[in-house]
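User: Structure please.
Assistant: Input sequence and predicted structure:
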Amino acid sequence: MAKRARIGRRGLLVPHPYPFLAAVFTVTALVGANPDEGIRPENLFAPVTLALLITLVGWAIGALAVRDRERQSAIALLVSLPLLTSGYIVGWIRANVVAGMTRDSMELGLSFALIVGGVWLVRRLPGSPTLSRFLNTLTAILLVFTVPAVLQLLRSSEQEVSPPVVQQIGESATRPDIYLFVLDAYSGAESLQEIYEFDNSPMLDSLRVRGFRFPNRPRANYTKTFLSVGSMMNRRYADDLIQVAGPDFSDRRPAHKALEFNQTIIDLKYLGYNFVYVGSSYPPMADNQLSNTRTGVDISREFESVWVRMTILDPIMRTICGVSLCKQPGIPFAAESAARTERQLGTLKSTVLRPGPKFVYAHLLLPHGPFRFGPLCERRPSRWTTGSDAVADTTANRLYIDQVECTNRKLLELVDAIRVESGDSAVILLQADHGYARFAGGMPPEFEVASADQVAERFDVFAAYAGPGSLADSLAAYQTPVNLFRTVFRVLWDVDEPPLADRHYWSGTRQPMLLTEVVLD
């Protein structure tokens, strides 16, 4: 009995810190690799908690398998690391060794094999205090390297706002309510017809009878949302932001600040507008600090979603959902659920009752994935593209068109709600940031990798404008969104902002600020 009690006390030894430091590092390293993704401190709580719990399970396994602190800590590390980095490991193997293997079975099987092999090896080797001290030091140093990126999240996000560039207008000057709905990845009518064999003319006809006008062959200026919308809202191209993007053209933080604290919002507020912002789950556009009325925007969960996809939690949740037919694959996190989008649309409908003059600005993650709505706006389990070849994925193409049809329904409902309150006096701007182009997860590659029809579709966008007097016709005279608010300010208030020449720039995901100018037909 005495011997058994002594073994029990030794089985509960306090572990070395390095397994837990390594677990936290899997989270903070992702922060350090994505410093400009709009991550908030709240986004770190769930990943850090889950990482520590997984490591705690590893330590418990070690306590059952061996009786000394050194080997218990080693087992905790060898159990937790495969589980917390399985997505990286399997991604590399699929890219370089066995691309055809099913990801979930491979990830689960490989993680199990690594854990069993690691526990077997540690049980047969003596514990090493020297190795433990080295690992404590190494993981502490690695964690320290990521501290600046984490501290950056805690810093005040206050921004020095640029002064207005417009002259004050008289009290009697017209100030119509302005609604801007940015539609993410809504391809233009040409691409919808040629690539998807979908005729969008009924939607255009419905808008036309409501007084909307359409540019001739509308095109995007940029292929990334933050650049496309940023240039539109600042009424100029992003040339100056390229100069401060860093040597690898990947630093998006200056561009994200210019997107949020943009010149159009500053000028409209100076002219007496009440600014209401309704954001999406896309981190750079989830909220806007200049908004006069906060609309209860949910915290973006994209960071947690990415972290989960790099861990064993992702295939486990997919497997559970496959067995139980749960409605939300990928829980506990989702890029944007149908319920969140519906709340956003409900908030937009309520804004029409707010007193004016008002500027209502919303980023709708529609018809962009994840595909979560059917053509009648019925909820569906969230899905991205399926299979490895997104271009040939006819299932994904059908899902996209279904979501386009739902988007059309929701837009007409919003337009009708605005018209009931404001009649024909409101300015309504429906503007896509870029086309869909069938990239997996919506992530465009480098220009040289994209096919010709993907390039064409990415620049081909949906656009429709309505407004009092000659404004709608004036807006429709220009092809690209960089001239959208230049025209609004010039026509409504005689601001000296002549139209800019149409320019088109491609940028990929790896170096989003490295721009390739494209000449379109």
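Strands lie at 178-183, 274-278, 358-364, 371-373, 379-383, 427-432, 463-466, 505-506, 516-517.
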